[in-house]
């Protein structure tokens, strides 16, 4: 039995530069979000607007979410240690999960509160509401510009970008509500805007929560067809079987694979196992949409199955 692995460097090595860039952008976005939050709280108190108050609450959760994202980006840049062999790479997934959970809770609260206000709409200071809505939108646009280039880097940055996008859409809803109330006196526009903000938040939060929990549950990553991986391995020369095949994801861009590969007995006597390892590593790293550069294979003779615990495919 021969166990061999393959890795293109420490998991933290390729993330250090990116983590520094992410931290800078997140810190800038956090500063802008905090400033807009203060302005919107003041505006909500002055105008009595639920839509603005809800957007301020959303900004509060976003400030917390960006703080989580900033902490996660900082941790993700730390190197691996003997106690944390993957470093803190998974912190970005934990950060995204926390942000998604908070966003979902806020979205549900928004919808419930807005429906209640539909039955008893308060008087809204629409002119001031418009001013604070514009302030919020300008701040959101600035944060979007800062985070846009790295929004696809990992789940953590995706969550942060999603939050500022939702904030921007919320600010647009506040501005529209202010204009409608100013021009028509239709006070229900404020509650309707709040409902729209909630409707924007909830589905996006659910999708992000689904993706982040999928990583935490070590599900097979998107884009990886396990049957295709198995079939490709079985088609290699000298391979007679594959079992205990696992593909999971430590963090964004860091899929890992382990497998027990049964090979012909002659491979253990003629020195062919090293070539087998190269072939297996090349197989999973080059032939699929998701390149798996960190792989561990246990090469076994057929007789080894009698000494193992029950296996699975």
How many strand units?
4
End-to-end Cα distance: 18 Å
Could you say what the CATH topology of the largest domain is called?
Alpha-lytic protease prodomain-like
Give the class-level CATH name of the largest domain.
Answer: Mainly Alpha
Residue runs with pLDDT of under 50 for 5 or more positions: 7-17
Give average pLDDT, whole number: 78
The helix count comes to: 8
Describe this structure in words.
By secondary structure, this protein is α+β, with helices and mostly antiparallel strands. The protein has 2 domains: 13-216, Cation efflux protein transmembrane domain (Alpha-lytic protease prodomain-like, Up-down Bundle), CATH 1.20.1510; 220-307, Alpha-Beta Plaits. It contains 8 helices and 4 strands; from the N terminus they run βαααααααββαβ. It has a 4-stranded mixed beta sheet with strand order 1-4-3-2. It is elongated and about 85 Å long. Residues 7-17 have low confidence and may be disordered.
Can you tag this structure with a few keywords?
11% strand, 313 residues, 4-stranded mixed sheet, alpha+beta, Alpha-Beta Plaits, Alpha-lytic protease prodomain-like
Short structural description:
This protein has 313 residues and is of the alpha+beta class. Helices cover 61% and strands 11% of the residues.
Fold blueprint:
Layout (H helix, E strand, L loop, with lengths): L1 E5 L9 H32 L2 H27 L14 H28 L7 H23 L6 H30 L3 H29 L9 H9 L4 E13 L2 E10 L9 H14 L7 E7 L13
Parallel strand pairs: 3-4
Antiparallel strand pairs: 1-4, 2-3
Helix pairs in contact: 1-2, 1-4, 2-3, 2-5, 2-6, 3-5, 3-6, 4-5, 5-6
């Amino acid at each position: 039995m021969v166990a061999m692995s393959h890795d293109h460097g420490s998991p933290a090595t390729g993330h250090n530069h990116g983590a520094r860039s992410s931290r800078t952008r997140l810190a800038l976005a956090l500063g802008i979000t905090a400033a807009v939050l203060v302005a919107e709280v003041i505006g909500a108190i002055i105008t009595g607007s639920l839509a603005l108050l809800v957007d301020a609450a959303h900004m509060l959760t976003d400030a917390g979410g960006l703080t989580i994202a900033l902490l996660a980006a900082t941790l993700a840049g730390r190197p691996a240690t003997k106690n944390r062999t993957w470093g803190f790479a998974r912190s970005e997934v934990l950060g995204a999960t926390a942000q998604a959970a908070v966003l979902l809770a806020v979205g549900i609260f928004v919808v419930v509160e807005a429906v209640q206000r539909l039955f008893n709409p308060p008087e809204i200071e629409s002119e001031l509401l418009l001013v604070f809505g514009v302030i919020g939108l300008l701040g959101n646009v600035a944060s979007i510009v800062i985070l846009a280039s790295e929004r696809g880097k990992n789940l953590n940055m995706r969550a942060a970008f999603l939050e500022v996008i939702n904030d921007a859409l919320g600010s647009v809803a506040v501005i529209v509500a202010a204009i409608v109330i100013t021009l028509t006196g239709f006070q229900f526009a404020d509650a309707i805007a709040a409902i729209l903000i909630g409707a924007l938040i909830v589905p996006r939060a659910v999708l992000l929560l689904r993706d982040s929990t999928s990583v935490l549950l070590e599900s097979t990553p998107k884009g990886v067809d396990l049957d295709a991986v198995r079939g490709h391995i079985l088609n290699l020369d000298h391979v007679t079987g594959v079992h205990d095949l696992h593909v999971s994801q430590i963090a964004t861009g860091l899929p890992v694979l382990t497998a027990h590969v049964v090979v012909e007995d002659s491979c253990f006597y003629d020195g062919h196992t090293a070539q087998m390892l190269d072939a297996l590593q090349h197989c999973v790293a080059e032939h699929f949409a998701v390149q798996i550069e960190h792989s561990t294979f246990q090469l076994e003779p057929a007789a080894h199955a009698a000494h193992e615990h029950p296996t699975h495919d």
